[in-house]
């Protein structure tokens, strides 16, 4: 991508809201994808982090759910932890997902029932069975999470979920209310590799909803999901209560 170079800050950027960077590259990628994907499936709705949704989007059987650059903070700082995330949703479920991470030389994809792949190699989650020692892409350890093993953390949540699919992490958890575009493609990639993916309350995530927000995230190898939810759900409920 011509707008990005390793180790070089990208200049044309601003904040949508405090702490939420965006660049003109986000908007350029968004416009290109909207044109190309719209031509591919004109009947599909459009939901993106960076542009207005199509009228009646949530009522459409098919919808594209897109984050043109997931991990913009890494992108604008010249770091490789960002990806382009594209998901096709049918009746609320992701049926195809692609992550393109050109700065890392990686392309990830999955189709429902067809497995998950990175650069042509089929992916399968690991089998770590205890939260103690579980590999987690996280900045620092604190509280009840001090027994995790820290691994590299790309800014892109989609890439962190893909790490679980590739047996490079065992668990990814979050409490922040995010958008469907953050996790749609990666959720299918992780699930097709054998992971369990829910929101922070343990509920199955449905996509292309009228309100396209998601209450946190838990993406984990099967043996860890229930234990991880035990740590996460009470905190999520507490935050929801405070927000209410």
What are the key terms here?
31% strand, globular, Fructose-1,6-Bisphosphatase, Chain A, domain 1, D-Maltodextrin-Binding Protein, domain 2, three-stranded antiparallel beta sheet, 5 helices
Q: What is the number of helices?
A: 5
Q: Tell me the strand order in the biggest sheet.
A: 3-4-5-6-7-8-9
Structural class by sheet pairing and helices:
alpha+beta
CATH architecture of the largest domain: 2-Layer Sandwich
Q: Profile the largest sheet.
A: 7 strands, mixed
The shape, in one word, is: globular
Number of domains: 2
CATH first level of the largest domain: which class? Alpha Beta
Structure commentary:
- The chain has 244 residues and is α+β, with helices and mostly antiparallel strands.
- It folds into 2 domains: 110 residues, Fructose-1,6-Bisphosphatase, subunit A, domain 1 (Fructose-1,6-Bisphosphatase, Chain A, domain 1, 2-Layer Sandwich); 109 residues, 3-Layer(aba) Sandwich (D-Maltodextrin-Binding Protein, domain 2).
- The strands form 4 sheets. It has a 7-stranded mixed beta sheet. It has a 3-stranded antiparallel beta sheet with strand order 12-14-13, with helices on both faces.
List the topology elements:
Blueprint: E1 13-17, E2 20-23, H1 24-40, E3 45-48, E4 62-70, H2 72-76, E5 83-90, E6 93-101, E7 106-111, E8 116-118, E9 121-122, E10 135-137, E11 149-151, H3 157-165, E12 171-179, H4 180-192, E13 196-198, E14 213-220, H5 222-243
Parallel strand pairs: 3-4, 10-11
Antiparallel strand pairs: 1-2, 4-5, 5-6, 6-7, 7-8, 8-9, 12-14, 13-14
């Amino acid at each position: 991508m011509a707008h990005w170079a390793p180790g070089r800050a990208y200049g044309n950027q601003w904040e949508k809201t405090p702490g939420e960077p965006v660049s003109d590259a986000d908007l350029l990628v968004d416009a290109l994808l909207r044109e190309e994907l719209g031509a591919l499936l004109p009947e599909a709705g459009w939901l993106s982090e960076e542009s207005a949704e199509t009228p009646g989007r949530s009522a459409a059987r098919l919808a594209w759910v897109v984050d043109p650059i997931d991990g913009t903070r890494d992108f604008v700082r010249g770091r490789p932890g960002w990806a382009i995330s594209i998901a096709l949703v049918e009746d609320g479920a992701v049926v195809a997902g692609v992550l393109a991470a050109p700065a890392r030389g990686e392309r990830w994809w999955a189709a429902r029932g067809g497995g998950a792949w990175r650069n042509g190699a089929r992916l399968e989650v690991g089998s770590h069975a205890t939260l103690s020692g579980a590999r987690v892409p996280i900045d620092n350890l604190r509280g009840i999470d001090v027994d995790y093993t820290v691994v590299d953390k790309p800014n892109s949540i989609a890439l962190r979920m893909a790490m679980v699919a590739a047996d490079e992490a065992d668990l990814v958890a979050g409490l922040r209310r995010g958008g469907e575009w953050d996790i749609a493609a990666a959720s299918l990639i992780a699930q097709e590799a054998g992971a369990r993916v829910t929101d922070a309350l343990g509920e199955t995530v449905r996509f292309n909803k009228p309100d396209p927000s998601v209450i946190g995230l838990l993406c984990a190898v099967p043996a860890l999901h229930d234990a991880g939810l035990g740590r996460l759900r009470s905190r999520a409920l507490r935050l929801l209560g405070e927000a209410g």
